[in-house]
Write a structure and sequence with these properties.
The protein is of the alpha+beta class. Helix content is about 40%, strand content about 20%.
């Protein structure tokens, strides 16, 4: 069988299945423009959290850490199961990766992550008690307080009947994200309100970590659940899910390429005058011309969808190297530098975490409105970060290269942006510094906290266009001129949908026609 014949057969049989997936992806992509997968956004989390009050604290972070050994950090979780983390010396004091200050069960507490990646532990700052188990009663109280504080106009306290415990679970359709692995298993509570709210509480910290509402749950079956191939029975097995998405999108890329190639081969460039250059009629002719108009776009969308999985780790990590971080922090996390945080953090403080700047201990405090500020962690901390000092130190990020540009960004652009600026997830203003090293490295620096936000190489920026640019049309000018962005995405999606639906119909007709043709041929031969 000739290669050309094999090409046609592959496109026919693979197209029957994959055109259906393409159609679902295009439809669900339109839904995803306006319906996000359920998550507890930063403003929602801050609105429902209790104000930070460490006036009753008696323990320093080091004192709290001394309450824990490696045997306390031996549990990890996936959406499917709990796992054990091997430790060399269970009785040895653990090493912290990060420590966050929060109010848990209306008490000041340290939420501690060890550097082995296990689930966090909570140590109360008032008496050193380690939170070993979160009871359903404590979880219900956390839900009641969260709902009460989140209400725009708090009314009377919620009655017990307003909150219903709906069981303990490892995962369900709305908690499949790996971001919740630190908190599994989860307590699920239904809130008797007009939005059909469901809240999930961490079994490790006792905090509300996810919320969903009835409308977004229904719409997400037409959006992310379909688009990301997110049914629970698949997504709860992360490795299998990744393998499935890679295979389907990879074969989809090949299908789109072969379709374009066949279109080129079928175009009769030497047709006589009056003869059609396209040897198709009816629905096949429609398929041919929609393929010409939307085929390349379909290819770029499927390819960029494949790139979302970062196959073969083509997109390098964007985290700065340890020595680059130390240029601004001055030292690794050293909990012994921090005093008892019994002093006030301000009237609006909701949470804080331990950081260093220039070797000094600071609490990076987040207020109810999402703003961030630095508060001294001890008398050692006297010098706050500022843009001028950070710029002066920037050449040390890559000493062997030259700093070619330093810019203060007061607005988002194509390489530093947020689709939801109101959430405060990407601060402004920030500093961007660019180097002339072999990788053309950029850094984004936060002058408020004195931290490196991210690092990007030329590979990262090219990948950003191949994935975010092609898949979501993340072009900052276009996004700023909505509804132009909406019109472009919807029109192109409908074009891709038309191409895919025609492919499904043609494939179905061939499935029905092929057996009949073979039967007729056999009868004729007989």
């Amino acid at each position: 069988m000739s290669f050309k014949r094999q090409l046609f057969l592959f496109h026919r049989w693979a197209g029957i299945v994959l055109c259906l997936f393409f159609a679902l992806w295009f439809v669900s992509g339109i839904f995803m423009m306006y319906v996000e997968f359920p998550l507890l956004s930063k403003p929602e989390r801050l609105a429902g959290a209790r104000l930070l009050n460490f006036s009753a604290a008696t323990l320093t972070p080091a004192d709290a850490m001394a309450k824990l050994q490696w045997k306390d950090f031996t549990r990890k979780a996936t959406p499917n199961a709990l796992e054990r983390v091997a430790v060399t010396d269970p009785e040895q004091q653990a090493t912290p990766r990060s420590i966050r200050l929060a109010m848990i069960a209306e008490r000041p507490a340290y939420v501690i992550h060890a550097d082995n990646g296990a689930q966090p532990r909570v140590v109360f700052a008032d008496n050193g008690e380690v939170l070993r188990d979160v009871s359903t009663k404590a979880a219900e109280e956390a839900v009641a307080g969260f709902v009460q504080r989140s209400a725009a106009s708090p009314a009377a306290p919620l009655e017990d009947s307003s909150i219903a415990f709906d069981g303990t679970l490892q995962t369900d359709q709305w908690t499949v994200s790996a971001a919740l692995n630190d908190h599994r298993p989860l307590f699920k509570y239904a809130v008797n309100d007009r939005d059909g709210t469901v809240l999930y509480v961490s079994s490790t910290t006792g905090e509300v970590v996810r919320d969903t509402h009835s409308t977004e749950r229904v719409l997400n079956y037409f959006a992310a659940v379909t688009h990301w191939l997110y049914p629970t029975f698949v997504r709860k097995y992360p490795e299998f899910w990744e393998w499935m998405v890679d295979i389907l999108s990879g074969v989809g890329v090949v299908l789109a390429i072969t379709g374009l190639w066949i279109g080129w081969l079928r175009w009769n460039r030497r047709a006589r005058p009056g003869k059609p250059q396209v040897p198709y009629k009816g629905l096949m002719r429609w398929h041919y011309f929609t393929g010409i108009v939307f085929g390349v776009l379909t290819l770029t969308w499927v390819l960029s969808g494949l790139l979302s999985m970062n196959p073969l780790n083509l997109n390098p990590p964007r985290r700065a190297e340890v020595d680059q971080q130390l240029l601004y922090t001055g030292k690794p996390l050293t909990i012994g530098d921090f005093a008892v945080p019994a002093h006030g953090f301000g009237a609006l403080a909701v949470e804080a975490d331990l950081v260093h700047y220039a070797g000094q201990p600071f609490y990076r405090v987040v207020d109810r409105d999402g703003s961030t500020r630095m508060v001294a962690g001890s008398v050692m901390a006297t010098t706050l970060p500022d843009a001028e000092t950070m710029l002066a130190r920037a050449p040390g990020l890559i000493p062997e290269a030259s700093l070619v540009e330093a810019t203060v960004l007061t607005e988002y652009d194509n390489y530093y942006y947020s689709r939801h600026p109101e959430r405060g997830e990407r601060p402004l203003p920030i500093i961007r510094v660019r180097f002339d090293d072999e990788q053309h490295t950029w850094f984004h620096l936060d002058p408020i906290t004195g931290q490196i936000l991210d690092r990007s190489t030329r590979t990262n920026r090219v990948y950003r266009w191949l994935y975010n640019g092609l898949h979501s049309f993340d072009i900052w000018w276009l996004w700023q001129h909505r509804p132009l962005w909406d019109i472009c995405v919807i029109v192109f999606s409908l074009g891709g949908l038309l191409l895919s639906v025609i492919g499904v119909v043609i494939g179905w007709r061939r499935l029905r026609y092929e057996p009949r043709r073979r039967t007729a041929s056999a009868v004729a031969i007989a």
